[in-house]
Amino acid sequence: MRTTARPGATAVDQFGNEISDVALTWSAAGAGGSVVEVQVFNRGLSGGEVQDIFDEGRPKEPFAVTVAASYRGSDQTTAATVGVLDPLLLWDFTDGTLGWQWYDHLASVESPRSGLEFRSVGDDPLLFSPVVFYPEGRTLRVTLRIKSTADASGQVFHGPPSEFTGQTQRRFTVTPDGEWHECVLEVPPQEPGTVPRVDPASWLGEITVAWISVDACIRAVPR
After folding, report:
1. What pLDDT score does 70 carry?
2. DSSP per residue, the chain
3. Model pLDDT, residue 48
């Protein structure tokens, strides 16, 4: 069931919040805010249904943003194209290893509540995902949430395992301070049936990967 207030109509709920055709506003316990659209359902929604409702309001094409600023009396205006991201995959390692495998220079691999924990014991630790099928012709954005006490160098490869070369390599840098960081990198379009590989470091240290997400870009997001 979806409810929409009549134009110009107002009502007050049991907590004293005023509901109008513009927004639901509230202020209580030191917090305030507004909700522009309210939907009420007579049953629980599945995760897919919630995602569909969220997607209804998302832009389907890239859009332009113009930013104007004044700095010490000098006006500056710039324009940028913002890419639209479609979520494809999320490997949340707090739920387990999720089919990922590891080879070479990794030890003590565990998956507790914090994520995939392991120790790098050499200069080439490797993690492999199961085979994935990305949309063809779409640039990808890969994000890793990781903490490490190894070195700062990380790499992501895509392709059949026999074809992991420098041409399929994308590098990322993580500060090896044992704190959480999110590393974002762009990956070119991939053929169906590719295998992501993550080299989280190139030296000794303790590493935890909380999750890895993959989004498809309609246009590359400027950073």
Report:
1. 63
2. ----PPTT-EEE-TTS-EEESS-EEEEETTEEEEES-----SSPPPHHHHHHHHHHTS-SS-EEEEEEEEETTEEEEEEEEEPPEEEEEEEEGGG--TT-EEESSEEEEE--TT-EEEEE-SS--EEEPPPB-PPTT-EEEEEEEEEESS-SEEEEE-S-GGG--GGGEEEEE---SSS-EEEEEEE----TTB--EEE--SSSEEEEEEEEEEEEESSPPP-
3. 75
Give 85's pLDDT tier (boundaries 50, 70, 90): confident
Residue 145's closest CA among 116, 169, 120, 121? Answer: 116
- Sorted by where each begins, the domain ranges of the chain are 10-56, 85-217
Quote the pTM value.
0.63
- Is the model's pLDDT at 59 over the cut of 60? no
Fold for the domain defined by 85-217:
Jelly Rolls (2.60.120)
